[in-house]
TrEMBL record:
Gene3D superfamilies: Alanine racemase, Lyase, Ornithine Decarboxylase, Chain A, domain 1
Involved pathway(s): Amino-acid biosynthesis; D-alanine biosynthesis; D-alanine from L-alanine: step 1/1
N6-(pyridoxal phosphate)lysine PTM sites in chain numbering: K41
Catalytic reactions of this protein: L-alanine = D-alanine
Keyword Isomerase recorded: yes
Protein name, entry field: Alanine racemase
Any Pfam family matching the protein: Ala_racemase_C
Role noted for this protein: Catalyzes the interconversion of L-alanine and D-alanine. May also act on other amino acids.
Residues reported in the UniProt entry to bind substrate: R137, M315
Amino acid sequence: MSIETFYRDSWVEIRLDAIKENMKQLQKTLDDKTGIYAVVKANAYGHGDVQVAQAALESGAYGLAVSLLDEALILREAGVEAPILVMGWVRPEDAPVAVKYNITLTAFQTEWVESVKNQSYEGALSLHLKWDSGMGRIGVRTKEELHELLLSCQDEKIQIDGIFTHFATADELDLSYFHKQQERFEILLEEFNRHWNEDVEIHTGNSAASMRFPEKMHHVVRFGISMYGLYPSTDVKALEPIPLQPAFSLHSKLIHVKKLPKGESISYGATYTTSSEEWIGTVPLGYADGWIRKLQGMEVLVEGKRMPIVGRICMDQFMVRLDQPYPVGTKVTLIGKQMDQEITIDEIADYLDTINYEIPCMISYRVPRIYVKDKNIIEVDNSLSVED
Ligand code: PMH
């Protein structure tokens, strides 16, 4: 844990207690024997991979799931010893790196396994086989492909430790496609069990499936978006299968406040013109921080009140219309609570016509992350830091 200094007035706050609470809520509904892979790919959906991984493991997560081998190596480098599964495709020539760092890879192509076997490494590569039961992304689809793959895996350089699939519609009210995927998975599972005697981990559920159908989960679930306190869809939010607390908030400060007369324009393209005398504040955050230009017109919170973003959002700054003058240094909340007002990630996602997953992911490396536990700042992570 380190407290790094940063020299700007914008920051993300991550409440690690919220992550722990969300883990606890899911654990309550799961069978005692069902473990949790905390999905921390993409820098833990923008929340900070190592910090979230540690909080999840402290809360009893069984392992961690990422998309890239590079992401897994960052966790190992930070001293994480728990099982790590890379769910995406890794080049076969990089398998020796996975073996060296005890990282499990995902396999679904016979040629890939053959190519891995030609690499030089000691011991066995741990694999989870991926079955495409209807996501149409990666995975084995037929019994024939499965047979071929299993044949190729009968080798001392390969160790099958798990099998999994991924649902495309577990977050929707209409569950017909979800059931179809489950059926297809069960058929391949029967086939697998006929040809393979060793015990393996079986996992199918993402946040939506694990919260809605905890009794249908096998050995592990892969808990992503809801560990961060967000529901996977508005449909699931309405069902509220478990209570969740968002962990992510985004803040800045007013760095300049001025009174403009009627008829003055703001920012590139002069797209906004004051319609009377107006107080305008400048916020030091822009599209290079992930606060993209499409957020023009969205609101921010100042002293618990909503103020609109006026004019185009620049690379590093944007302007807001204030209801009155506020001192330089006044806190501005872009995501999160101030008094009884709240701007949620879901609201931002709605405004941008996208899903909540995308919002924390898009807040860039330029914005330092502050980690809070029991109301205390326990760590500051600043990617721009030049300090060791
Ligand atoms: N398992 C796999 C294979 C995934 O790709 C994801 C999320 C999860 C589990 C976790 O899902 P959850 O966040 O809904 O709990 N993957 C993605 C994705 O590829 N695009 O958006 C989410």
